[in-house]
Amino acid sequence: MEVSDTRGERTPAVRAVLPSHGGGGPQTVAPLMGHLAASMHVFAPTHPGWNGTTRPDSFASVADLAAGYLARLLDHGERDVVLVGSSIGGWIALEMAVRAAHDERCAGLIGAVVDIDGVGVVVEAEPVADFFALDARGLAEAAWHDPERGYMDPARFTDEQRAIQQANSRTMAVIAGPGMSDPTLLGRLGAVNVPTLVVWGESDRIVTPAYGRAVADAVPGARFVEIQAAGHLPHLEAPDATWAAIDPFLKLS
Fold it and tell me: What is d(CA 213, CA 70) in angstroms, rounded to the nearest whole number?
């Protein structure tokens, strides 16, 4: 599993952060990585199987990705790493935090978690939208406060872009499953033992703010912040408000 480094030579005093992208690929967290890189040492993974990368058969679930990333951070000798995840990436970050809490080898490895509109849990009466049943227009309407900003006309895609999108979707179906959730995760979040911030777009219809509050309620001491005029990707749609939520949390955690 490749975890690329965007900052060159490491300064020991600079905290490390691992941003984790969602189904749309690494470009969906590019502004987030750029913002964090101003003050932190950013590792920038592309999940196996996304954007033309190879997915080994050993990576067939979010749990597999979480275990793989923890192993790589341990191999790097990291400490106090901040996990920031968007959508499926939020699920990966939470799974990593749960696993680290149960593994003495990971003591001190994870320092904080930021979950941005993360899928992964099952919340009664707040189902995850059926992503795989949505066309481009339906996805924009579910994921964005302003659907016109998020709509991508498939007719304008190049053959290469269309192939990447289709491959990403196939990989997501394998990794996240058709329901994009793990029925055991919500009940396991009580093990998370690091400061956690749950950030949610008020207009998210992939996973609603009520879903996000349920996630925050399940993590001991977690804070929940709702971002106005934003949907599933608040760091794209309302970046200033998103930074205003994340930056103070990271300074104190």
Answer: 26
